[in-house]
Amino acid sequence: MDDLFRTAFDGPGLAGVDEVGRGPLAGDVVAAAVILDPARPIAGLRDSKKLSAPRREQLAQQIREQALAWSVARATVAEIDRINILQASLLAMHRAVQALDPQPSYVLVDGNRLPRWSYASEPVIKGDDRVPAIAAASILAKVQRDSELVELEQLYPGYGFAAHKGYPTAAHLQALKILGASPVHRRSFAPVRAVLEGHEAG
Q1: How many domains does the chain have?
Q2: Calpha distance 91→149 (Å, rounded)
Q3: Which range of residues forms the domain containing residue 62?
Q4: In 3D, which of 114, 136, 128, 112 has the Cα closest to residue 38?
Q5: Pairing mode, if any, of strands 121-124 and 106-110?
Q6: pLDDT, tens digit, 9 for 90 and up, residues 174-193
Q7: Is residue 174 assigned to a domain?
Q8: Is 132 part of any domain?
Q9: How far apart are CA 36 and CA 69, in angstroms?
């Protein structure tokens, strides 16, 4: 992490927030917010995508046990289809920060956009690899969403949700063509919309 962020943003009351699931064709978009405890640092925090699944699970448990506050929130598939994935992602992040207790004094958001809110905050590009609190949020969000997609595989077998987590892999797109869209597919996303239109035309 940059020295700038280490000195300016490691104090108490700082929340990091990140979301997971903007790209998938199915499932909710999930966000997490974390206020780390400076007295109980957690080693190894980084972008969740760069960690193995077992390591993410281990760190997620540490975060839940050692953070001053943490929360996980979401925007649903219906909300994604109604307001678009960008706005749904910002909504999920807003909900995650609102759920923190205590509330943060400052919020750092992964990426280049901020939700519309009253919090003192700023976006941090590649923040999940630069700011420990954002990295912690990315880990909690990914562990939560991945577990939910494993559950969706049981509810809607055949799509391979447990393997690809809803992302548009070749196997997922093929299953979508064969099985049609499930109730958890995002109908506003082009590959899903194309399948639905094809079935209606047929």
Answers
A1: 1
A2: 20
A3: 3-150
A4: 136
A5: parallel
A6: 999 999 999 999 999 999 99
A7: no
A8: yes
A9: 7
